[in-house]
Every structure is written in C-alpha cells, then in structure tokens.
Description:
mainly alpha; Growth Hormone, Chain: A; two-stranded antiparallel ribbon; 2 strands
Amino acid sequence: MFIVPMCDHFGWSRTGFSGAVSLGSFLGALxxxxxxxxxxxxxxxxxxxxxxxxxxxxxxxxxxxxxxxxFYAAFGISRMMFSAPFDVGTTAxxxxxxxxxxxxxxxxxxxxxxxxxxxxxxLAQLAISTYGWRAxxxxxxxxxxxxxxxxxWLLLVRQPEDAGxxxxxxxxxxxxxxxxxxxxxxxxxxxxxxxxxWLLMAYTVLVFPVQAGLSxxxxxxxxxxxxxxxxxxxxxxxxxxxxxxxxxxxGALRLPARLSLCGGALLMALGALLMHAVHGAALAFAAAxxxxxxxxxxxxxxxxxxxxxxxxAHFGAIRGITLPVQVVGQALxxxxxxxxRDVTGDYGTGMVLFAVLSALAAVVxxxxxxxxxxxx
Length: 376
C-alpha cells in the first residue's frame, strides 16, 4: 500500500524502495544467530515486547521521513525486527509450549498473523486515502503499540516447566511427561551434520524469495494491471484471509510435514502463474487465494518441521543458525521483482521466476525426510 504513494511523492524507483526491504532482511540475517540462543535462555517475553517497541518507533520515524536515507534506516531496522526476533521469538514460544498439539498451535499462530495481515492493509489504505501515506504509518505505529507490546509483557511465560506444567499445558504432569516423552534433542552442531537440515535450508532459500517478493509487489502489480486501489487492497486482504484459513487446514492434516511443505510450494507456484495472467478482478482473487493458501502451509508447517526434527531444547539456537538463509531469501525476492519490473516495465517476468522457484522448492521438500532420532 505504501509503494505507489511514496514512490510517486519522492520520485523513487521500485528497486530503490525494495532495497530497504532487502537491507532489513540482511540485517536480520546478521542478528538471527545472536538472538536465537537468547530466546532459549531467557524466553520470548522481554525480547518480543522490546522488538515491538522498536517497530512502533520505526513506524513513527517513517511517518516523518523526508529522504531515502531516512527511509532506509527506519524501514531497515523495522524489517530486521520482523526478520529475526519476531520470527524466532513467536515460533520458539509455541515450539516450547506444545509437542503433541504443535501443528495445531502453530496453525493458530500463523492464522493470527494472517488475520493481522488481512486487517492492516484496509486500515492503512483508509488512512492513506483520507490523510496521506504519513497517516498510514502513524496508524500502524498505534496498532503495534497496543497489540505487540502489552500482551507479550503481561501474559507470556518462557516455557511450561517455568509454570509447573508439561508441554501442551497438562497441569501437574511435568515429571510424568519428562519420564515418558521421546523428544528429539539435537544440539546445533548435531543438527548441522544431518542431510535434513541442509535440505530444509535449500527449500527455504528457494521459497522465501517468492513469499516476500510477491507479497510486497502484488499490490502495485494489480494496480498496473488495471485494478483500483480499493480492489487491490481487497485482493491483498483475500490473500491474507486464505493464508489464515490454510494455516488451520494444514495444521489439522495428518500428512507428513514435508509433504505439506511440498503442497504449500505448489500452491505458491500456481498463485504466481495466475498473478502473471491477471487482467481483471476474478483472476486476481483466484491468484491471491492460491498464493495465500500456499503461504499458510509454509508459515505453519516449516516451524513445526524444525521443532519435530530437532527438538525443543535448542530450537532458538538452531533457528538462529538457519534463519539467515530465510531472511536472505526474503531480501532477494523484493529486490528481484523490483529490478525486473524496472528493466522490463512489468512484473510478469518476476511472476514466472517465482513460479519456477516454488516448483523447485516442492521437489526439494519431498526429499527432506526426518533425521535419525536423537532422543532425550
């Protein structure tokens, strides 16, 4: 929602705007190995609340920006928070609190993110249409302060054992669970020695450029294909609603998680191809539905796979090691889409590239079998 008004206001190129997203992702890649062990040691409460405060402050700075340098600084730091602390912190909290119900719990986490993404574009678009893009950033700052800081600070506990519980919230059963549980327990060094970790990283580096690139550029692509700003916002919200619904669906499935990852990548490939063909509202909604369903599978099942394959004990540290691959992919996606659009004058080439990357990721997912168990 911000790309078109800000680029028109300042005369920036799409590549220039996308570079801020890529900068933040690269900063997140540098921060992830440092923050992962902190979540294992101290939990997510303080770190998530502090990260939300930083994001709110960056949104206020973006509302006041007058230069590309200032935009890069504020947006880069904000994106870094989403790329590292938010990703590791939220998934680590769920992974540590749930074992038997992990997929369903992670689905609810992904669904909540999808609901937020469905509500924020119309809110931001309403503020932008009424008062301008600076008001849009102010509205986002207010939302982050209210939702991102207070609940984390008041309600979040590091792990169930700290509250005298077992995973899955079973009261008074901590000792029984510890005696009968067969959890995988991999240290970061042991995880790095498994083929599964490297295959999952290959999947990540293929699929996350698609996730980030298409998510960022779908609105301007739709505007260039003739949709109105309001219709484009509705399509983006449909994408987010489908991501939320797909999260619940994939969380309830009994398929092996790697096959769910394969299905998610294939849906993303279909969404990219449909987005390439968009010339009207019907096809735009179909593309958003397919792509959103794939994103829901990806964001729900990938954290489940990391936790199921390698365990709870060092989840944050292992994610901290592997997350840079994800955020580098997320950095490259928007930059590739923006650069290809600037060179060709259209997003079509980028959509085809995203479809090919997603199809390759689907093939890799099939071969990412669980490692030999290292049980507690």
